[in-house]
Every structure is written in structure tokens, then in C-alpha cells.
Amino acid sequence: MPYWDERVEEVGKRYTGVHWDKYHIDILSARFVLSPDRFDVVVASNPFGDILSDLGPACAGTIGIAPSANLKPERDFPSLFEPVHGSAPDIYGKNIANPIAMIWSGAMMLNFLGDSDSVYREAHDAIIRAIETVLVNGPRTPDPAGTASTTDVGAWPSPPRSKPDERLDTGSPA
């Protein structure tokens, strides 16, 4: 991909403190599996990025917890936040999908918005703490060797409420 390589080299010249390497997709895939800790950020074309965004979390045992974002840093067009796993039609209606990736994607969105508003950043931090608690203490859906339902994982831990149907006060209408 000569055009892609030229763009990366051009941008790389502006960030002399950032070390970067070029890999062919076959060896990069092998290194993802054999030594994933060597990578912080991977920049790739869409087809290769799509493959790697499934391979990376699969190496950790499940793609069910991996968030993703397609960012437009200039913010002149919307950014997109979604789970890596997509819509998972094979498990539709079974109440076994892992909701962590969707929740984490929402937290990433709040973090992105938090550049200009600390309320978003605080909400992001609270969600990340909840995700960490669930990952350490459970419950877990079947994809990381658990037995809990989507509903169970999505509801735990949740903020205490005085009534089961009481909505959290977010400052905006429900």
C-alpha cells in the first residue's frame, strides 16, 4: 500500500518523539499473538484494522469486551463508538451477549467528549471502575467462561436507587 506508507512516513516526520514501525499484515498478526505487549497503538487501513481489532481481543479470550472508536479529532464530523464484535446475530435473543464492549465504547465516547467537560471525564472514570470490578469479580457471560446473562452483567454493579424504576438524575429529560 504505497499511498498509505507515504502518508504514515509524512505524518511520522512531524512526531519525531514517536517511534513507529511498518509491518506486513502476516507478521503483524503473528506478533499480536506472540508478543501483544509490544504494541500501544496500531494504525492500519480499514480491512487490516478490522482483522486486527478482532484478533487482539481474541488473544485475550473474547472479543466480547473490546470497545472501538473511529475518531475524527478535528470534530468537524461525528466520531463513531461501537463494540468490536458487531451485532452478533448468531446469539440474538439468547440473552448471552457480553455487554461490556458496548458499555466500554460508551465510556470511550465520554472520555473523548471529556476533553472539554470534566463531567464527561468523571462519568467515564466511574464506568471504567465498574467494568474493572465486573471483570475481576464477575458476573461473566459465557464468552469468558461464565454463566451469567447479558441482563445480569449489564445491571451489575449499578448505582443504588430508592425504587427499582427510578431513573438516575442526568440533568436531562428521560
From TrEMBL:
Hydrolase in keyword set: no
Isopropylmalate dehydrogenase-like domain span: 1-157
Span list, region Disordered: 138-174
Range of residues in the leader sequence: none
Gene Ontology molecular function terms on file: metal ion binding; oxidoreductase activity
Presence of the UniProt keyword Transmembrane helix in the record: no
Alphabetized InterPro entries for the sequence: ICDH/IPMDH, IsoPropMal-DH-like_dom
Gene3D superfamilies: Isopropylmalate Dehydrogenase
Keywords: Manganese, Metal-binding, NAD, Oxidoreductase
Pfam family, any one: Iso_dh
Cofactor: Mn(2+); Mg(2+)
Biased composition regions of type Basic and acidic residues, renumbered to the chain: 162-174
Chain coiled-coil ranges: none
Protein name, as recorded: Tartrate dehydrogenase
